[in-house]
Amino acid sequence: MPLAKSRSSAADVALNVAAQDMTSLLADLAATESGVRRNAVRALGLHPGSAAALCDRLQVETSPSVRAVLFTTLIRLQSPAVAVRLAKLLRSDDAPLRNAAIEALQEMPDAVAPHLQTLLADEDSDVRIFTVNILAALRHRQAPEWLAVVVRGDPHVNVCAAAVDGLAEIGGPETVQDLRDLRGRFAGNAYMEFAIDTAIRRIGAE
């Protein structure tokens, strides 16, 4: 019995030390020196519970190097909740931040997958385009089908054009008929006809 109590006490001490360490690291996220912030982000990669705070830091971080480590750490801590926070950055006017969020989401297929239908139905066509760009590079078995759904129903020509480009990279023979139907939907649009014909040729060549 005394031995069991000793073990329990040691575990409690370890948990308290870990909690204090995480508290200190979270405080360092607001440090003046970028190096301190960068080191804190790296260390917080060992604490899954820090993901929300790291996402918060993305909103205000101005150092490109710290930002890069933030994204790398969030990819490592990826979860559906992290994907939701990063997806909100698709609306950002900060192009480097938005592009980094797109690249990060492309690295977390399972985490972002539950949110794709909502993003593809967003009223903002730019958000839909960015989501299509994520899909085109997403290592997920359903990505070609999701792109085909865009081709079948999205009313915006630029969103469909992005989906066509994506299918040219990852589409299979089963998507060819959808592309042919899209050609009819945008008949007379020279760019779309060219892009669709190119995609069909590339898919056929595979």
- Proportion of residues in helical segments: over 70%
- Reported by name, the CATH topology of the domain at 114-206 is Leucine-rich Repeat Variant
How far do the termini sit from each other?
68 Å
DSSP helical segment count: 13
Instruction: Return residue spans where pLDDT drops below 50 for at least 5 consecutive residues.
Output: 1-8, 10-18
Largest beta-sheet details = none
Helix-strand category: mainly alpha
How large, in whole angstroms, is the Cα Rg? Answer: 22 Å
CATH C-level category of the domain at 114-206: Mainly Alpha
How many beta strands in the DSSP annotation? 0
Summarize the structure.
By secondary structure, the protein is mainly alpha-helical. It has helices at 2-28, 34-44, 51-58, 64-76, 80-87, 95-106, 109-112, 116-120, 125-137, 143-153, 157-170, 176-185, 190-205. The chain has a domain at 114-206: Leucine-rich Repeat Variant (Alpha Horseshoe).
